[in-house]
């Protein structure tokens, strides 16, 4: 069952910092800035599948929680919370500049989008998984935001790439699909080359407004 925008807004209010009082934007619209604490879906530009995870481990490689591309829009396991890396001054509601290192936390399972040198199940590229928990995160969860074009901060209508810090691999998907446990879902993996299949866009979600006292230049 899909989580409604209203339900997501309630979730955000329950997890907001105590000094953050603005109301979240309850639906994505063109030009909305992505801020820390926003809950979003990432859409693979070429195939339109959403970045997805669920509590099903890979049967090979690391055996960690699997990450796939999901064909349907109305799926609650495709929501990700945009987080800063630890030990930074970034706050909830801050905008995110290009070349910033971020983390993506899977909303349902609380695990982090992760990668390493294990081989992905279908193509043999670098595996992308979910790993850790709220208080358990390492550099394998770090992704560098690369914005395509001239924009300085991440917006909902911008094409972006996410490059894994430890391995140098770009978050990637393609039309190679699973046939058994995750039938119809497509592989998500990491590749070191910059390709058209590395491009993602922020799609559905609840976007926290920019904190008034914490604007980043745009």
TrEMBL record:
* InterPro entries from the UniProt entry: MIR_dom_sf, MIR_motif
Q: Which UniProt keywords apply?
A: Repeat, Signal
Q: What is this protein called?
A: Stromal cell-derived factor 2-like protein
**Which segments constitute the MIR domain?**
31-85, 93-148, 151-205
> Which SMART domains does UniProt cross-reference here?
MIR
Q: Which organism is it from?
A: Coffea arabica (Arabian coffee)
Q: Which residues form the signal peptide?
A: 1-27
């Amino acid at each position: 069952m899909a989580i409604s925008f209203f339900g997501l807004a309630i979730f955000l209010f329950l997890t907001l910092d105590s000094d953050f009082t603005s109301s979240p934007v309850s639906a994505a619209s063109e030009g909305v800035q992505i801020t820390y604490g926003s809950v979003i879906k990432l859409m693979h530009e070429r195939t339109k599948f959403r970045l997805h995870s669920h509590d099903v481990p890979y049967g090979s490689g690391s055996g960690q929680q699997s990450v796939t591309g999901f064909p349907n829009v109305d799926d609650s396991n495709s929501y990700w919370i945009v987080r800063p890396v630890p030990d930074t001054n970034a706050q909830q509601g801050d905008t995110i500049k290009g070349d910033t290192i971020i983390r993506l936390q899977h909303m349902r399972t609380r695990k982090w989008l992760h990668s390493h040198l294990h081989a992905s199940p279908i193509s043999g590229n670098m595996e992308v998984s979910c790993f850790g928990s709220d208080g358990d995160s390492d550099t394998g969860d770090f992704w560098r935001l690369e914005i395509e074009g001239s924009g300085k901060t991440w917006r909902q209508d911008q094409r972006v790439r996410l490059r894994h810090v430890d391995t140098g691999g770009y978050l990637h998907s393609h039309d190679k699909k699973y046939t058994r446990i995750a039938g119809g879902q497509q592989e998500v993996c990491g590749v070191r080359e910059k390709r058209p299949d590395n491009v993602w866009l922020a799609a559905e979600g609840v976007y926290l407004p920019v904190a008034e006292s914490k604007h980043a230049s745009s």
